[in-house]
Amino acid sequence: MKCLEFQKMISPLVDGELSEASAMALRAHLASCADCRLVHERVEALNGDLRSVVATLPTSHLAEKVKESIAARRVRSEASDFLPTWGRVPIMAMLVLIALGLGNLAGTSLTDLIAPREPEVTSEFSINDNGHSFADLILDLGREEAPR
User: Fold this and answer.
1) How far apart are CA 18 and CA 32, in angstroms?
2) Most exposed: 43, 83, 95, 144, by fewest CB within 10 Å?
3) Does the pLDDT of residue 146 top 50, yes or no?
4) Residue whose C-alpha is closest to residue 25's, from 8, 41, 38, 46
5) Closest residue by Cα to residue 35 from 1, 64, 73, 7
6) What is the model's pLDDT at position 54?
7) Residue 101 — very low, low, confident or very high, per pLDDT cuts 50/70/90?
8) What would the pLDDT profile of 39-75 be if each residue is shown by its tens digit?
9) Which residue in 125, 134, 130 sits closest to 148, CA to CA?
């Protein structure tokens, strides 16, 4: 086995989760490998440090403080949300419709106010058809001389 495989077995060895055969093989490897022995020592030291940490219990008034904080936030939230979201949608729709209506009454649409366009220049001309069909007129326009 390689050192990486042995190092993966160190934590289960320290926790007592390794089988006897695997534990004996790992101990034999630790006796001959300085790198893996260093990893084992660090894991042992870490476990010792974790066991020595005394669990601190929260004070009895901590729960009351948390509940008071939650209640205060709820009151602030309710005060700022005087109108729920579902109530805001019709109001916004009504404001948009009023803006569109006022723009149309003033002779300018809302789209023209937001993004004004250049005036379109159009030219119109008329052609006497003299009883010809539209296709004949188009074909006649392509010729050099117009029909009489």
Assistant:
1) 20
2) 144
3) no
4) 8
5) 7
6) 64
7) confident
8) 999 999 988 888 777 666 667 788 888 888 988 888 7
9) 130
- Contact status, residue 109 vs residue 103, Cβ threshold 8 Å: yes
DSSP letter, residue 120: P
Q: Which residue has the tokens 């490897």?
A: 29
Q: Is 26 within 8 Å of 13 (Cβ atoms)?
A: yes
CB 147 within 8 A of CB 130: yes
Q: Given the structure tokens 């005036």, which residue do they identify?
A: 119
Whole-model pTM? 0.38
Question: What are the distances in angstroms from CA 131 to CA 81, 111, 114, 135?
Answer: 73, 44, 48, 12
